[in-house]
UniProtKB/TrEMBL annotation:
<protein>
    <submittedName>
        <fullName>RidA family protein</fullName>
    </submittedName>
</protein>
<dbReference type="InterPro" id="IPR013813">
    <property type="entry name" value="Endoribo_LPSP/chorism_mut-like"/>
</dbReference>
<feature type="domain" description="Endoribonuclease L-PSP/chorismate mutase-like">
    <location>
        <begin position="6"/>
        <end position="143"/>
    </location>
</feature>
<dbReference type="InterPro" id="IPR035959">
    <property type="entry name" value="RutC-like_sf"/>
</dbReference>
<dbReference type="Pfam" id="PF14588">
    <property type="entry name" value="YjgF_endoribonc"/>
</dbReference>
Length: 154
């Protein structure tokens, strides 16, 4: 039976995908006490990596915001796989976001709003979080965005 958070996701038209397997030597999530650390998630959807490239060199902020939202959806998929029930989420503590950017691109926070806005839409006040939005030269698989998370679990 779907809980409150999954019902809200359905209302938003979001179906959680199967969690993406790690692409290297790490685990997708680690529960340490009440904190669930989710490894960096790429914008991988049913067709594979949804957005490659670099902000400031042809990738639009709007496309990158959609990719950031997909990263957040993948974070929730990993959380469900790790703890079994999204209603165990007490709050999103922090998102750490990386945006592939040119040296003269400065709108990383606008890009990451795609993930932040989604977390609040899906989780309400539990989705409000601290955050980093960092520009980087390159990301795995050529992705435009990667986001990791720390969630408090009941």
């Amino acid at each position: 039976m779907a809980g409150e958070i999954e019902a809200k996701l359905a209302e938003l038209g979001v179906t959680l995908p199967q969690p993406v397997a790690p692409v290297a030597n790490y685990v997708p999530a680690v529960l340490a006490g009440k904190l669930l650390h989710i490894s960096g998630q790429l914008p991988i959807g049913p067709e594979g990596l949804s957005l490659k490239g670099t902000l400031g060199a042809g990738v639009s902020v709007e496309d990158a915001q959609a990719a950031a939202k997909l990263c957040a959806i993948n974070i929730l998929a990993q959380a469900k796989a790790a703890v079994g029930d999204l209603d165990k989420i007490v709050r999103v503590v922090k998102l750490g976001a990386f945006v592939a950017s040119t040296a003269d691109f400065f709108d990383q926070p606008k890009v990451v709003n795609g993930a932040s806005d989604f977390m609040v839409a899906a989780l309400g006040d539990k989705g409000r979080h601290a955050r980093s939005a960092v520009g980087v030269a390159a990301l795995p698989l050529g992705a435009a965005v990667e986001i990791d998370a720390i969630l408090e679990i009941a």
